[in-house]
Q: What sequence folds into this?
């Protein structure tokens, strides 16, 4: 079985089952996508590669952004289409070679950067259609940050922001604790210490 085949069975209610507090988690993700690096403006289009069932799309649409979701699993595309109705474009496609019909303001890829067959080639391809920023999450215990940054620079993404992301995926936090977790994202050495054991970076790369 290919690793990707697991998603055929998991497509139904992916977002609701994967995220303990889907709204809080994805709202924080959407806020950072919009605000880190170059600002996104109303009506800017976000291309979400490996979009799953489009859960992130709801939160980006709420911010008056346009959303285009692409996933290689037909069942995920069906779920995303059901979720987002006529409010967004959702397509079947492989992130390695997909090209949007028009350049997009931002390209995102969450929990899926490991599906890039050749990471440097993927960054170079994304740079051809991404105007403001490429955004993805990265586990620093799995990838060498300096190697990823070098690949981004090689593709022409010269401005790179690394932001710790401390809202947990599998635990729903009371609002007051979530606020502390978000504040800790700005704490430099303390944040880097936490990242040695858990959590991910949000990587925002602009040309
Ligand atoms: C862990 S899920 C992440 C879904 C969503 N981005 C999220 O953060 O909840 C990985 C997704 O990547 C998709 N995927 C795997 N390989 C892909 C590829 N080569 N091109 C596009 N999507 C792919 C799977 O179908 C699945 O929906």
A:
């Amino acid at each position: 079985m290919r690793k990707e085949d697991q998603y055929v069975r998991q497509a139904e209610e992916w977002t609701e089952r994967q995220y303990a507090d889907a709204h809080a988690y994805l709202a924080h993700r959407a806020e950072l996508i919009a605000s880190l690096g170059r600002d996104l403006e109303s009506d800017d289009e976000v291309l979400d590669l490996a979009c799953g069932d489009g859960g992130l799309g709801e939160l980006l649409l709420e911010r008056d952004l346009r959303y285009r979701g692409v996933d290689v699993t037909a069942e995920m595309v069906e779920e995303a289409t059901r979720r987002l109705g006529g409010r967004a474009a959702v397509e079947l496609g492989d992130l390695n070679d997909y090209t949007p019909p028009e350049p997009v303001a931002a390209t995102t890829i969450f929990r899926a950067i490991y599906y890039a067959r050749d990471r440097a080639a993927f960054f170079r391809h994304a740079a051809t259609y991404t105007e403001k920023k490429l955004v993805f999450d990265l586990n620093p215990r799995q990838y060498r940050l300096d190697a990823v940054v070098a690949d981004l620079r090689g593709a022409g993404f010269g401005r790179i922001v690394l932001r710790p992301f401390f809202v947990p995926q599998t635990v729903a936090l009371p609002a007051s604790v979530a606020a502390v977790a978000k504040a800790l994202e700005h704490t430099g050495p303390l944040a880097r210490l936490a990242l040695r054991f858990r959590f991910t970076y949000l990587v925002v790369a602009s040309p």
